């Protein structure tokens, strides 16, 4: 629990639980506490009223409260522990972690800076580096976060505590992804998977399962070990276990990850996400609540419910100092307005989307992947507005960015968007030239077939139609091609009226809405 051990002792008809930091540290004291709790010795060797015992009792109650009731109650216990043990590093560390998760950034910085690890146990040192690394990651200070993750791994390996080692590898993987260090990312995720199996994907990797707002799981061209099919039963078991044991924070994280698994039917994922949100609000898990709200916005955009998405995205304004989360929220707000405009033709929503995307591009700092995504989404918005010149320029820029970032999956989105623009400009030859030698993208094959028809290349068209027919869920697209054949001319207005635009589905993911 929270990288600590929970001992359960049974004696006669009595059962007691005790949380301990490390099994090999002061075990005689641990045994004495259990014996005292079970009333096996009426007069323990050390009085339970000493400041150290009272302080440790408050500390362990804080750990338990953090898991079961939320950070506010936990903070009170950790504060009480420090009153009795002013130099107790684990309590100082938990308060530093809680501070930023409750939105108190300056307080967190002060607390982290004040912690001395000179006399701290190795497990506590590992947690310090993990917590500090997570804080830096939340601030967008990825290089500093990676330095902390590296030190966390070294400390965890010294004591061979598997969970801590795996958490260090997962933090490294998150940061390598962000820094586009793909080989290092692959190594870190492989290491975490080797240590703890599918659980290594349950939370952190689930957040990368989607395309633009959360980069695709593929990363570079090869796929990773991400297996949502395997993680689904793991999460289901975890949810049941955390419910039974009353571990609210872990339950929220498991429900959140389960809601992000796109192999789970929407009728199940939606209640899972909403329950995670309700529990986070109830327990005061401020930062986690903001993450869930942002994801719910993305979730409803995928369902083409832009107004519902805005309701969640606008509930809380994220502090700009949490730069990655703030960026994501602003991008999703723009996407929600875009969705409304694309689905309903609402001109006001279209203008709001244009303004929001332009504001993002004009900002002083924008994470490179986010900037590339904004360019492509902005291009789609201009397509809807009928500004082909602006759409083409932005799409070309996005395509170049994705190539540089080695994001092969989303590079395809920019590629078929360029093809579509050439079709609308009556340039079928240019569209055909853009086609990759091998593609399983439905829209690449669709637009290629349209271009071949416009260019009177019947053999190429039949080849592309045959490939398209082999893909799942291609029936509607084949019908569109048949309807196009029946037209007297393939004009831009005919294409926009019959053929799916690049923004018709916001991602070429495998998410099936059941």
Largest sheet: 2 strands, antiparallel
Sequence stretches where pLDDT stays below 50 over 5 or more residues = 43-48, 205-225, 507-514
Q: Tell me the distance between the termini.
A: 35 Å
Number of E strands: 2
Q: Radius of gyration, Cα only, in angstroms?
A: 27 Å
Q: What is the 3D shape?
A: elongated
Q: Please tally the helical runs, counting DSSP H or I stretches of 4 or more residues.
A: 24
Helicity range: 55-70%
Structural class: mainly alpha
What letter string, H or E per element, gives the SSE order? EEHHHHHHHHHHHHHHHHHHHHHHHH
Mean pLDDT: 85
Beta content comes to: under 5%
The neighbouring-strand order within the major sheet is: 1-2
Short description:
The protein is mainly α. 68% of the residues lie in helices and 3% in strands.
Account of the 3D structure:
The chain is mainly alpha-helical and 514 residues long. Helices cover 68% and strands 3% of the residues. It is built from 24 helices and two strands. It has helices at 27-37, 51-68, 71-84, 89-101, 105-114, 122-139, 142-159, 162-178, 182-196, 228-245, 248-259, 266-283, 286-302, 306-313, 323-344, 347-362, 368-385, 388-405, 408-424, 428-434, 442-454, 458-470, 475-485, 492-498; strands at residues 5-11, 14-20. The protein has a two-stranded antiparallel sheet with strand order 1-2. Helix 8 runs antiparallel to helix 9, helix 17 (368-385) runs antiparallel to helix 18 and helix 19 (408-424) runs parallel beside helix 21. The chain is elongated, with a radius of gyration of 27 Å.
